Amino acid sequence: MAKTALVVGASGIVGSATTALLRERGWNVHALARRPVDLPGVDPVAADLQDAEATAAALAALNPDAVFITTWLRQDSEAENIRVNGAMVRNLLDALPRPTGPRHVALVTGLKHYLGPFEAYGQGVLPQTPFREEQGRLDVENFYYAQEDALFAAAARDGFSWSVHRPHTVIGLAVGNAMNMGTTLAVYATLCREAGRPFLFPGSQAQWSRLTDMTDARLLASHMLWAADTDAAHDQAFNVVNGDVFRWQWMWSRIADWFGVEAVPFDGTVRPLEQQMAEDAGPWRDIALREGLAEPRLDRLASPWHTDADLGRPIEVVTDMSKSRRLGFTGYQPTDDAFFALFERLRAERLIP
């Protein structure tokens, strides 16, 4: 019989990629979101994880073989991030009936596990790169840690296996997502081409000239499914990146070439996208109306604040994948190809011209 999965945050970058892969592999998929979208062959589940009673009612009849938690809600402070996002994981796992057979729960967090939360991002004493899973937690409050603790407590209570997946910046498609570098850069490049503006790197010297890596949403989905199906990967935390490393001074030119704009060499001046794109809502709406695009709202496509946070780091960020490799995960995705595949899909779905 086909296995059954519950994908939490199914409309997001990671959740939608996970849902697609599960369907491809023959799983029955329940897709949970606050506002579910209709997807072929997927059972939509509407629930707000901040509402414990409503979540319990929505999930009372489900007994999934695997649960994939791919969602979070950004708050105004880290204290609120901890309160809200920790409660969301607790409410979800409290709402599910106790498993009557094997169950695996995968939680997606990220490299802020090693870099610190938004309020203290890249500050203080950080682990050496490449980041390795055994480096553990920083001595600072972090909503990722709160999510993990809620997962660990529920697993001890209910007897399911778990895995934690820590991607770097994720490349994938979603509209209205809070952390979306790939689409943000696609929109920015389109605006630069339209107005004849220079395609200026918005980040730091460290990110321009030192090594980094990223994570394709499709590879992350594959990694989570591998962990769910691999006994040796149970009750483990994993880094998840594409497997290649690059410097932005190379990748910036690759992206510029794809869009037919000129990549301006970085001159040492940080020019955040939040500033560069501050007046672009009107120009984007004009482009969308002229080209018949599906989304005229710039704020639904671009998240300049998050791209600025990633590209503005003062340190090199590279990630070790040895733990997964030793246990048999061999997935690999060149990052430039991941960007190009996303850009092609954005065009195909009429999100960029």
Automatic annotation (TrEMBL):
Domain NAD-dependent epimerase/dehydratase: 5-240
Cross-referenced InterPro entries: Epimerase_deHydtase (IPR001509), NAD(P)-bd_dom_sf (IPR036291), PRISE-like_Rossmann-fold (IPR055222)
Classification via SUPFAM superfamilies: NAD(P)-binding Rossmann-fold domains
CDD domains tied to this protein: 5beta-POR_like_SDR_a
Signal peptide: none
The protein's name: NAD dependent epimerase/dehydratase
